[in-house]
Amino acid sequence: MAMKEFKEKVLLKSESAWSQIDAAEKEAVFSFSENYKKFLDEGKTERECAIYMEEEAKTKGFKNILDVIAEGKPIKAGDKIYGNNRDKSIIFFVIGKEDIERGMHIVGGHIDAPRIDLKQRPLYEDADMALLKTHYYGGIKKYQWVASPLALHGRLIKENGEIVDICIGEDENDPVFMITDLLPHLGKDQAAKKLGEGITGEGLNLLIGSMPLDDEDEKEKVKLNIMSMLYEKYGIVEADFETAEIEIVPAGKARDLGFDRSMISAYGHDDRVCSYAGFEALLEIDVPEKTAVGMFMDKEEVGSQGNTGSESAYFEHCVAELINLQTEKYSELLVRRALSNTQVLSADVSAAFDPNFADVYDRKNSGFIGKGLQIMKYTGSRGKGGSSDANAEYLAVVRKIFNDNHVVWQTGELGKVDQGGGGTIAYILANAGAEVVDCGVPVLSMHAPYEVISKIDLYMAYKGYKAFLNR
Question: What is 115-250's CATH topology?
């Protein structure tokens, strides 16, 4: 065997995914990315994402699991069913030819993203300005959220039960809001602080107005003027904030990045890029051998707890209900068997190698922008603490699926061993006995208000998830 041939046979190649597709597939990449940008623009919160997915799925014939249970009819191969958990997380099932107890194929991501939330009593006035007090959600660098246009998204429920959904700051005719920063002329003490201490959590107060109400007898004229506007437009009172769910997110649309338009800059790629790819892949599944599942969950950025997070029993409840509709001999043992026989792609992003910060990465074991879908054998931090570590047998299965379906993929870790780390929902399903590996899109500027991904990596995620589910 010639040396060139031998080297091609035994050595690992690392090529751009763009160089491994033809003109027709390149066109598909850009088309898919346009639809993804629309999803990002309409889904700035986990609630908006879940509602978007539900409406889209219903057009493809998916039925609410509550309606399926009420009908009481046996489910069959090809049935399309979804469970909406409080409009915050959503799970889709395409029933396979085999019984569910034989296992499922799952692509599981999350649709919450780092952000800033309003406190329960947020509105106050100071120095003739109206502001909102906040509490950040997830791992953010607080200094990145100041001096930038922000939008308000969320839901208030009046005392009479009326629901008021708001979205202010996204339309070009809307006002935007801002957390102010200190001018450099007076920033000597601020500049002397550590980067993470220059802006404090209690300092993330949102500026929303400065015009006073025309009433000499009132003390807090600006605050009252803001409340008069809110009451006039929405009919809400200050007490409604105490039970509201209002999120502060970057204002503006997803945009192409680069002269070649090969990347997308947007809020919320983590983890809506993987969730969207998985969702679109699932919509195209017809009648798989094993039941295909798409899980798009809430609360991952704060640990996956709560009744809409992956640690809740909601998914298992749905599986139990479906098994009960599939067999006349239901038992809890069948649910356990189903989970134990299941294979999962934990569809979450990882950090792409950034040459501006090369010292925190192991270049030989990093994911790269534009080199395809990234498999992460383990996550966790330092000595694999808190990780889900996939075994060689399962990785071989995933490798074959991707190679057989011409999916361009790569492997990588989050960063250098002692530098830090992070986790996903992988360990939760692994704890239930399923085979799981993290598999997602590499991201630049992760957890910043605007993150960056490659369009080709997004497309390869969709292609890989579809191949995995369609078995």
Answer: Aminopeptidase i, Domain 2 (2.30.250)
